Amino acid sequence: MAHTRRTAGLDPQTRFEDIYRDLTQFEFPWDMNQSLSFALFRTYAVPTIGRLLFETGEFTERVQKRYDDTALLLEVPLVHGLDSTAGKQAIRRINQMHRMYDISNDDMRYVLATFVVVPVRWITAYGWRRLTDDEVVATVRYFEAVGRRMGIRDIPHDYDGFARLMDDYERDHFAFDRGARAVADSTLRLLATFYPGVPESVARKAAYALMDPPLLAAFQYGEPGRRWRRLVKSGLRARSAVVARLPRRRRPLTVESMHRIRSYPKGFQTAALGTFAPGCPVHAGRSGGV
142, 143, 151, 205: which has the fewest C-beta neighbours closer than 10 Å? Predict the structure, then answer.
């Protein structure tokens, strides 16, 4: 794969959307999707987050749709631009959902931090190359911009600040909760379906192998053992070695086009994604528009 980046020379302070879009759609589409899914999974281990997700029933009764809606609402602003009509509509939909519940600013900041830190750490460990300093800065600036549009206060201004926030919050808040465990179990069952032919038990063990001890303990999952950890991590590094030798991707790979998004085979309307308060009307309109 060619190592000359499309975004080389762009200012990450002003062109952060372009740089982050390139990372997610051209440079590391699979890695970014995996790591962002794992970032969300980590948040379940904070009881105030995991328990709320359990109480809504969305992650236990409609987990495929909830996964799809989350992925699409995050992607629409990235594809079209944060200040585009579609991007504003997606952020508005996210904010409408959050306002339905009593969610603390601290929890919101923590979730935002996972979106920055987990992908950077994942790509450092398993990516086909390291991120450049400009790409890390662009990732921070992108999620700063998202956070401001969500009304989140006291957002860190650099990567180290996000990393400290995430690590400190997990150290202080990770704990077992039965509802959160149910959400985690349901999510793992869904993720296992993304790899046809792989038994669920094997997929779960592979997932455990990517979890650190505090995360395993928070869900009361058993330690997978050194053999499984070596096997899974070696497999991911072997994959990265292969990807590094492939031709440069010429077309963007979006979440919407991935086979794991199954709820909207005829397209979707951004305004109809997600959950709504009881009695709130949803006008589906024509399919396919975002």
Answer: 151
CA distances from 156 to 25, 131, 162 (A): 25, 20, 6
Q: How far apart are CA 13 and CA 227, in angstroms?
A: 43
Q: How far is CA 79 from CA 86, 87, 122, 134, in A?
A: 9, 8, 22, 20
DSSP 127: S
Read off the pLDDT of residues 170-208 as tens digits, 9 standing for 90 and up. Answer: 999 999 999 999 999 999 999 999 998 999 999 999 999
Angle ∠(199,205,209) on CA atoms, nearest 5: 145
**Prediction pTM value:** 0.92
Cβ atoms of 177 and 47 closer than 8 Å? yes
Alpha helices (H) in 131-199, listed in sequence order? 133-149, 159-173, 178-192
At CA 68, angle to CA 78 and CA 252, rounded to 5? 40
Q: Where are the alpha helices (DSSP H) in the chain?
A: 16-22, 29-43, 47-56, 58-61, 63-80, 85-99, 105-126, 133-149, 159-173, 178-192, 200-209, 213-219, 226-243
pLDDT tens digits, residue range 9-41?
A: 899 999 999 999 999 999 999 999 999 999 999
Q: How many CB atoms lie within 10 A of CB 193?
A: 13
Ranges in the chain, pLDDT < 70: 1-4, 278-290
Q: Looking at residue 2, what is its pLDDT?
A: 43
Contact yes or no for 227/206 (Cβ under 8 A): no
Q: How far is CA 173 from CA 25, 44, 176, 281, in A?
A: 33, 11, 10, 36
CA distance 165 to 159: 10
Rounded CA gap, 288 and 71, in Å? 16
